[in-house]
Amino acid sequence: MTSHLQTFHAVVVGGGLVGKTAALALTQSGLRTALVASTAAPLPPGAAFDSRIYALSSSSQALLERLRVWQALDRSRLGPVFDMRVFGDARAELHFSAFQASVPQLAWIVESSLIEQSLDTALRFQPNLTWFDSRAQGMTVDAAAAQVTLANGETLEADLVIGADGAHSWVRAQMGAKATRRDYRQTGVVANFKAEKPHGETAYQWFRDTEIIALLPLPDDHVSLVWSARTDHADALMKLDPAQLSAEVEKATENTLGKLDCVTPAQGFPLALQTVDRLIAPRVALVGDAAHIIHPLAGQGMNLGLRDVAALAEVIANKEAFRDLGDPVLLRRYERARREDIQKLMAATDGLQRLFSVPGTLARTVRNAGMALVGAQPLIKRWLVSAALG
């Protein structure tokens, strides 16, 4: 193929929700932006809900509203969370209430495909955006610019390359950043169910025998399951037929929502903690799973990635006129802005996962006593809700 050079302010590599949100934020600010990504795959015919869902915080909602994506979502498919009930493995219980915390809702439960299709639509109407449905296969960086070569023969030149290409990031490898990964030896099993009893816009979470089970509210009394199970157990769960899986979830959740009817096939994804030694390199910045992976027990992984995008967009919007997007000073501002938030959330989720993975009566007694103590402290609960909202 003959290489054709095209110039941009920024190139975003990666087509998940974080990458597409980053591309939209940059192009809406007037920057010529290239997106190297594929379009969103539609739901299978007849599918009631996408198995992949996210619990979006107020900060994520605010970002999507600023980009005019949230307003385009089908409201009938959004599930607000007004209450959350967390059950320990020795009868301890925590209750979080949006009313008591004086917030409109604790989170929104949203299907991945719903957001991604709205992002795709918004991106197609951006005059400053060029979308390349191809794969990046080469990157060089010098003092003047970065160049990304694509499998289709195109060469893209830009001031800044943003790596939003997931846990096994190609961009991260090109910039020489080191990723440290610790496998939790767990798999997140996800599926959706129609519940017999109304969920009342309440999210439920159970800690059971070193595993964590969550039922998250969707419209029309549907719920989304996220079961962080030992890998061998997860494999067994995903081999069950829909009726058998429903029965297992009913048992594990103590029939809280009555009979469950499985409406989407179960899917699984490996769970791990992954850190990187740096978020930036000359003319390169990482966002989303390319920069960090945390345990899903708090439902904060996507929110953390979207806060990366918001911080990077803010740094760029406030840059001095004489700096280009790849200026090391700007990139260091971005890394400093994100360091504390990422480290705190990693420590919190990893600490909880470790705490509830310790077997034995003494460990169970201690952690449930801690849950009871938190539940009796309104100020601590309010602080936890505030932290989760971003």
Automatic annotation (TrEMBL):
GO MF entries: FAD binding; monooxygenase activity; oxidoreductase activity, acting on paired donors, with incorporation or reduction of molecular oxygen
Span of domain FAD-binding: 10-347
Gene3D superfamilies assigned: FAD/NAD(P)-binding domain
One Pfam family matching this protein: FAD_binding_3
Example of a GO biological process term: ubiquinone biosynthetic process
Keyword entries, A-Z: FAD, Flavoprotein, Monooxygenase, Oxidoreductase, Ubiquinone
InterPro entries hit by this protein: FAD-bd, FAD/NAD-bd_sf, Ubi_Hdrlase_CS, UbiH/COQ6, UbiH/COQ6_monooxygenase
SUPFAM superfamilies: FAD/NAD(P)-binding domain (SSF51905)
Superkingdom field: Bacteria
Cofactor(s) in the UniProt record: FAD
Pathway annotation: Cofactor biosynthesis; ubiquinone biosynthesis
UniProt similarity note: Belongs to the UbiH/COQ6 family.
Protein known as: Ubiquinone biosynthesis protein
Organism whose genome encodes this protein: Caballeronia glathei
